[in-house]
Specification:
The complex is a heterodimer of chains A (446) and B (152). Chain A has 446 residues and is mainly β. Chain A contains 3 helices and 22 strands. In chain B, helix 3 packs antiparallel against helix 4 and helix 4 runs antiparallel to helix 5. Classes of the chains: A mainly beta (446), B mainly alpha (152).
Chain lengths: 446, 152
């Protein structure tokens, strides 16, 4: 027992003294290493200095760091930056929009083809004979949008390019079963140099600033609405606070055959010729547009007719921050330009000849600001066609809409809104239909 | 259907009762000075500039053009404002101020001139994002001066 205890204490003493010895050795090693590092660093610096002195140039570490931290230059238009080494300002942007919509009855097809449920398209308002299921709910984010633009000042005037897309591609509508995979589509693609513009954008016949602020993408009945390829010249008349536009735009005829069905012949010979005068005054802006079109048919025999239309539109300031917006249209070639092609451009008689008919429509809208971030729009629109006698009585004769909304923008980049819409449509045979819609929308700009 | 209409009505009623923060305003300290009259014009143009953020139908190039028109308006207002601000030091003899107060008064008038000149430059360069903050600075300068010297 005694032997064991002695052995144990001897072992402990050995361990402790060994540890002390190794700790002292470690300290010495670290100390040696430190002094070696210091010596090497000093030698390295000495060598670098000699090298710099020999080459006679400063070391380049500093400029490299400066180049890496150089700031991006702000561009010439809001939200843009200049492409390094150029005078071109570039900007990207868009918004994400969700629409949650209740319809009193379905106005569209199934799956992704339920366009009539997603936007107000007057031609899809169900009438008595084709009334569909009641109480339709649909959600979509198809209006979400992306754009990219550039701006370059030049001796020839401003050089602008613009490309914009959203997800309302009607030809590939996706479905609602699994992934809601809607395809992007081209909205705008144009360039402009000074007064000259070429590309696809809003038709010159349309005064965009007159359109009311609505959640519904279809807008009020009676509006002029088309985007198409065109060549446009805009002459600014600053002294008169006015500008004059003239354009030739892509033609397309839509015709009603004697059975009441739509035909879209691919036989256009002349571009649509459009001119517009814009006046800007302290009380608001107003525009007058005129258009001449050649409406053609190649169904049974080649036939054509020339027609025209006028559009008066504007935005007038009202009390405080409020404004009144309006549009009035009349002519025998309004057709596809008005109310999302509710009426066709003309009709084909039994001899295969094109006949034009008068149409008119318009809207009025008032926007009221309740507070800095709260606003409402009340809009009413209508459209009427004096159809020719020989077409089937199932064609649309009139349509109207009324909208009321409340929009809230807690930040200027976001808007949340609730909107109520009422729309109705009547046929030549006196049948009519009604649609009630409640729509919640949220918009997040970027 | 009735339920949805009731919901909409409720939303409208609630929204009317909600108070939101307002934009910076000129204090109503007394009768309006000549330079203050331009303030209303500036406020109106700024509202129009801000409202462009809510445009969904105009494309961005058209919105840029509208912004350019508004900044041109701001240049005109700034020029008028600079003309009227020049007369502020001429009010000095009509005020019962000691030497130190006179120096402060002139300093504030100088600051206002400087701020309005900068606003004009920013508007000429179409620096839209800088304009709102500059106008806030101008209003702060105006308010500070009115609060101190209007009683005289």
């Amino acid at each position: 027992m005694l032997k064991r205890v002695s052995l144990f204490f001897t072992f402990c003493f050995f361990i402790i003294t060994s540890a002390q010895a190794s700790e002292e050795g470690l300290h010495k090693t670290v100390k040696d290493l430190r002094s070696q590092v210091e010596l090497l660093t000093a030698r390295l610096l000495q060598m670098e200095k000699r090298l710099d002195d020999k080459e006679g140039k400063p070391r380049e570490i500093e400029p490299i760091i400066k180049a890496e931290t150089k700031k991006v230059e702000v561009g010439d238009v809001k939200g843009s930056f200049k492409i390094p080494g150029t005078e071109t300002s570039l900007a990207i942007g868009g918004y994400i929009k969700l629409d949650a919509i209740y319809n009193s009855q379905s106005a569209g097809g199934s799956g992704g083809s339920n366009l009539g449920d997603q936007i107000l398209s007057p031609g899809t308002i169900p009438v008595q004979k084709d009334e569909k299921e009641d109480d339709q709910i649909t959600f979509h984010a198809r209006q979400s949008r992306f754009w990219i633009k550039s701006h370059t000042a030049s001796d020839w005037g401003d050089l602008n390019t613009y490309l914009e897309m959203d997800f309302f591609a009607f030809q590939s509508p996706g479905n609602e079963r699994v992934s809601n995979s809607y395809s992007p589509r081209l909205r705008h693609a144009f360039g402009s140099l000074g007064p000259f513009l070429a590309g696809q954008t809003w038709t010159t016949f349309m005064n965009v600033s007159a359109l009311p602020e609505l959640n519904d993408f279809g807008g009020p009945v009676g509006r002029i609405f088309a985007r198409q390829p065109q060549l446009r010249w805009t002459q600014s008349m600053k002294d008169q606070q006015a500008e004059w536009m003239i354009a030739i735009e892509s033609p397309e005829s839509t015709l009603t055959n004697p059975d009441g069905d739509r035909e879209t012949p691919n036989d256009d010979h002349f571009p649509d010729i459009i001119t517009r005068l814009n006046l800007y005054r302290p009380w608001g802006s107003v525009s007058l547009a005129g258009m001449v079109r050649n409406i053609r048919s190649d169904s049974e025999k080649n036939s054509d007719a020339y027609g025209g239309a006028l559009s008066l539109a504007g935005r007038v300031k009202a009390v405080d921050r409020d404004d009144l917006r309006f549009m009035l249209n009349y002519g025998n070639a309004l057709g596809r330009y008005a109310s999302s092609n509710l009426f066709n451009d003309g009709a084909i008689n039994s001899r295969g000849e094109v006949e034009l008919f008068n149409q008119y429509g318009g809207f009025i809208a008032y926007r009221h600001w309740w507070h800095d971030n709260w606003r409402s729009t009340l809009a009413y629109g209508f459209s009427y066609a004096d159809n020719v006698d020989f077409v089937a009585d199932t064609v649309s004769q009139w349509a109207q809409s009324a909208q009321m909304n409340l929009l809230w923008s807690p930040l200027s980049q976001t808007t949340f809104g609730l909107e109520y819409s009422y729309a109705s449509r009547g046929l030549e045979n006196n049948e009519s239909g009604h649609l009630h819609r409640i729509q919640f929308s949220s918009i997040f700009n970027f | 259907m009735k339920n949805y209409l009731l919901l909409l009505l409720l939303f409208l009623l609630v929204s009317c009762g909600v108070k939101q923060p307002t934009n910076k305003l000129l204090l109503n300290t007394a009768t309006p000075a000549r330079h203050a009259i331009q303030g209303e014009r500036l406020k109106s143009v700024m509202n129009e500039l801000n409202d462009l953020m809510f445009e969904r139908m105009l494309n961005e190039v058209q919105i840029d053009q509208q912004r350019r028109y508004r900044t041109e308006d701001i240049v005109k207002v700034s020029e008028t404002l600079l003309q009227t601000v020049k007369y502020i030091p001429k009010a000095l003899p009509t005020l019962d101020l000691d030497q130190q107060e006179q120096q402060v008064f002139l300093k504030m008038a100088e600051k206002l001139t400087e701020q309005v000149s900068m606003l004009k430059q920013e508007a000429e360069r179409n620096h839209v994002d800088a304009i709102s903050a500059r106008i806030d600075h101008i209003i702060d300068t105006c308010n500070a001066c009115h609060q101190v010297f209007r009683p005289y």
